[in-house]
Specification:
The protein has 197 residues and is an all-alpha fold. 79% of the residues lie in helices and 0% in strands.
Length: 197
């Protein structure tokens, strides 16, 4: 096993061992962080849209490879704050479903808009994802730690997308990446149908 693989294994084991300790923290503090960390992965619509941001960033290359995955969580935190304080945002589920459709389509089409436009599109959808997370804070848990958790999980999902997106360096990888984008977009159509049904 490589040195890097051993480090990853030790980190995973450490997280599993630490779980019972986190579960017994008082007054929902650690639970808020863990709940926030798990929330983005609890819905496939969130997962696919966030992975698509990473895929698209990897497809576009520098500086989009870091700008898009940084823009999304930062703006998502703003949306999360709006949700936490109860500011209404109409069409949240429609926005989330549409984000999967359009972000998947960007990957499928290998779209290369100006960087500012790509960042603006990502930021627009981040507000909806953040608002959904913010409004779902469980009672008695720390809003701050919950927010840190869902922003960290989002960053991890973007990193997964970027890692997968590196296959675009090869011709077969570009075909697979475009197919993955199309799959995300089709899933978004299903999420949209479910949201309006």
């Amino acid at each position: 096993m490589s040195r890097h693989g051993l480090r990853c294994l030790l980190l995973a084991v450490g997280c599993v061992i630490a779980w019972p300790v986190i579960a017994h923290e008082q007054q929902g503090q650690a639970a808020g962080f863990v709940t926030g960390l798990l929330h983005p992965v609890s819905g496939l619509d969130h997962v696919l849209a966030m992975v698509a941001v990473g895929l698209w960033g990897a497809q576009l290359g520098a500086p989009a490879i870091w700008l898009l995955p940084v823009t999304f969580p930062l703006v998502m935190a703003v949306g999360g704050f709006l949700g936490l304080v109860g500011v209404p945002l109409p069409g949240v589920e429609l926005g989330i479903a549409t984000s999967a459709i359009l972000l998947g389509a960007m990957v499928a089409l290998q779209a290369r808009p100006p960087l500012a436009l790509a960042a603006l599109l990502v930021a627009f959808f981040a507000v909806f994802h953040g608002h959904a997370h913010g409004t779902e804070l469980p009672a008695g848990q720390s809003g701050l730690l919950y927010s840190v958790g869902f922003v960290a999980a989002t960053g991890a999902l973007h990193a997964v997308g970027i890692s997968i997106g590196f296959i675009h360096r090869w011709a077969a990888g570009r075909v697979l990446l475009r197919a993955a984008g199309a799959a995300v977009s089709l899933a978004g159509v299903f999420f949209l149908w479910r949201a309006i049904a």
